[in-house]
Amino acid sequence: SRYRQDDMLDFYLLSRARFFITSSSGISFLPLLTGTPLILVNITSIMLNMDNSIVANPQRDLMIPKKYYNSRTKKFLSLREQLQFEAKHQDYDIFYQYNQQGIYLVENTAEEINAVVQEMIDRLRGGRIYTSEEEALQARYRHILLSAVEKTHMTWVDARVGSVFLQENPWYLE
């Protein structure tokens, strides 16, 4: 290419960004250095081994996970079922295990990503006030998550889940 890559320019642009949208890739660590809020989309595993951690801040960052569809039962896995599966298969290639069980990952839709982006924009503008229903859903999510984590030696993606995602997928918190 005619243009030279400049890592410092990448870092500068990130430091000036209002927020950063990423998946669970290596670049998700860069916003930690600048304090740039993260939106994590298409998160594949909520509980992680320490070497695969995604460092997030629930007061600053938002996330939406992929959905896990069980082709045998013809339904999506709840958060509790997903975490149980992750804990059981933490030392194995978990995606191979999902495939063996007929469980397939479903990417976030454009509408889901747009909703979590709008939530972040509203938060950054200072105009986002969460309803008691939204806070109750977050509390339920955290309760399920922390109950599963305390039984393992794993860490977790500690970000607030997009409110619209939780509202539109009530089965997720069953």
Structure, described:
The chain starts with 6 loop residues before the first helix and ends in a 6-residue tail after the last helix. It has helices at 7-16, 30-34, 79-88, 94-100, 110-124, 132-149, 163-168; strands spanning 20-22, 38-43, 47-48, 62-65, 67-70, 75-76, 103-106, 155-156, 160-161. Strands 1-2-4-9 form a 4-stranded parallel beta sheet. Strands 6-5-7 form a 3-stranded antiparallel beta sheet. Strands 3-8 form a two-stranded antiparallel ribbon. The protein is 41% helix and 17% strand. With 174 residues, the protein is α/β, with parallel strands linked by helices.
Characteristic terms for this protein:
globular; 7 helices; four-stranded parallel beta sheet; single chain; alpha/beta; 9 strands; 174 residues
Give the topology.
Layout: H1 7-16, E1 20-22, H2 30-34, E2 38-43, E3 47-48, E4 62-65, E5 67-70, E6 75-76, H3 79-88, H4 94-100, E7 103-106, H5 110-124, H6 132-149, E8 155-156, E9 160-161, H7 163-168
Parallel strand pairs: 1-2, 2-4, 4-9
Antiparallel strand pairs: 3-8, 5-6, 5-7
Helix pairs in contact: 3-6
